[in-house]
Amino acid sequence: xxxxxxxxxxxxxxxxxxxxxxxDRTGDPVDLHDHALxxxxxxxxxxxxxxxxxxxxxxxxxxxxxxxxxxxxxxDHAAHAIRPLLGHRVARLVRLHVPAKRYLAATxxxxxLSPQSTFTLQLQxxxxxxxxxxxxxxxxxAEDAVTLxxxxxxxxxxxxxxxxxxxxxxxLELVTAAQR
Length: 180
What we know:
InterPro entries: HD_domain (IPR006674), OP_Dioxygenase (IPR052567). With 180 residues, the chain is mainly α. 62% of the residues lie in helices and 0% in strands. The chain is built from 9 helices and no strands.
């Protein structure tokens, strides 16, 4: 599936309310809707001028809705769906948020993962080898991908008010317009 309009993307983002990263709700303690809003809000605070990074945070986990049960490839599914609409950089950051988790698992032993992220890390290839980590560091988007990942890992707090989804529509429209 490829998303062709902000309206289609907004429908998918609204569908994240009550949807979880695992079908039986044993995963992270917030639904995908709240997780998306929290991730984007954290990135807005830390990188207020980087709208593409913020949007990547908002949409990074929509692959769970697109292909339920495919935890290992959820980032690839999301990146494929949003690339025509949000462009190369947003899609690449979304795709890289899983390798960034593998990188942090290899290079930062104090980087905490939720129990669900620890479980899916194994499905996604486990911690990077030293050679994989060096190759990842050479990617021009590695630093931004790590920033996205750190926000992703922090954005799993029940009860946090991170705003409403509709507030992101103008940002999505701005990023989409820049791709045309």
